[in-house]
Amino acid sequence: MVSIIKGESVVGAGISKGTIPFKFDVRGLRKEELKVEYIQRRRGPNKVRIRGERFEQEIAFSEDLDAGDIHALFHNGFLTLKLVKNKTSNNTTARTSSSSSSNDDDEQVTEIKISEERGGGGIDTKHTVMIAEQILYDVVHREDADTLILALPSGLMKEQIKLQLLRKESLRILIFSHHSKWITLQKEFPLPPDCHKNSIKAKLGSDILYVIFPKKRNDPTTVKPAAVAASGETTGGLRKRRRNNEEEKVNTEVVGGDDDDEEIKARKLMKLRRQPPMKWLNVAAAVVALVVVGGVAMYHICQHHK
Fold this sequence. Notes:
Elements: E1 3-4, E2 19-25, E3 35-41, E4 46-51, E5 56-61, E6 71-75, E7 78-84, H1 93-97, E8 100-101, E9 107-112, E10 114-116, H2 126-129, E11 136-141, E12 145-151, E13 161-166, E14 170-176, E15 183-190, E16 201-205, E17 208-214, H3 225-231, H4 235-255, H5 260-274, H6 278-305
Parallel strand pairs: 6-10
Antiparallel strand pairs: 1-2, 2-7, 3-4, 3-9, 4-5, 6-7, 8-9, 11-12, 12-17, 13-14, 14-15, 16-17
Helix pairs in contact: 4-5
Protein name: SHSP domain-containing protein
Region (Disordered): 89-121, 232-256
Organism: Cuscuta australis
């Protein structure tokens, strides 16, 4: 199964002048099983088609491409396309001479040769890293974490990548040259609103950078300041609501059900348990005083009759 890193939301987008890199996950396939074609159309946008035994995928562009400068590189199960925007609107003769007619007379198809990278080398990153807008990325949302996926040029090492957390709730990604003397890329991404900053992780594998943003666990006993400010509660109201939340948490454990009557009874019971004992001490003291006074009075009456 083939998949493109970032997705087709970038198709026809106003990407800066220069190289447009695309990376496809084709693990499990060999270079001989892949075919890259440039489709020149009289009507509609030109396309680049990637074909294999079990898939076919096309990328449409709003601008003409220079077919003579479309490079395809296969390495470690990934197919990287480097597409260069055509500076002129006229088509080159080299493209026409190498094109073969398709079933549709409105289309001309040019096959792009796929080269294979061997060993631990890497393609030239000078053109594919300089412009931040050309870095392709996607965000995968899950219940426990969000993952930022970036397709990077081949040959980068983890020592060349640096991540910085900024106070304005964003993540800055820096990519340095091989000698770490200058920055070739600087791009910022906003942090998810519910991410746990101290647990952010990043890993690099097969020229793909994964940045994982674990989400904070929701605690029903915690009231967010923003929600309190929006509701207009006072400090006393906030304390009371926190106390009620604590009671409801205990009630759930004690009652073990959601019946409204039982919950009310349990809540009243908890309030009685938490009530200060001074009120009941005062009542008990009054009762004792009445008993003592009554006893003394009875004693004097008995003595008088004697």
